[in-house]
Amino acid sequence: MIENFLIGRQKNQNYLIKQWLTRSHKQEIIKKAVLRDGDNVLDVACGNGYLLGELSKKARVNAFGVDIAENMIASARERYPACTFTVGPCAPLGFENESMDVITVSCAFHHFENPQTFADECLRVLKVNGKVFIAEPFFSPLVRCLANTLVFPFSKKGDVRVYSQRELQLFFESAGFTEFESYITDTVLFLSAEK
What we know:
6 helices, Rossmann fold, globular, alpha/beta, methyltransferase activity, Class I SAM-dependent methyltransferase, transferase, Methyltransf_11, methyltransferase
């Protein structure tokens, strides 16, 4: 009984640390995303739904979230019942062609096993003039190299690869996106692109 309590407490502490570490990434997307009433917004790797909940305060949007973790989707459904959450992968996305106005990804792109497939899926799912907003952890070139060669290949947390600003943009350029905005602020690498 005590062991289960301690395990649960440790998981909760890990979750709170992760929330704190990703807060600035979510805030960057919230600040930059321009939303209109009636927009369809999809948050990929939505976790507990916090980002969608905050974006829903900016306009009366139709909010959708997808995540591979069933427990995160259960939490999101409980916290934000006005949003629609489903368990699913980042690619293929289980949404119709040209069905979304906005797609967001916060601190999850480095977990995607095939980032080019994801970028292609964003192009397929977004409406004409739709936008994708991504906020990723920023690492200096040396730290990025060490993480990608010495840490992530042995990581059991789902980390695949962290990208430079240019590498991140190339995925979306190759998919056919235009009108890029990309910058680095503190620990956040931000990218937006338009279909």
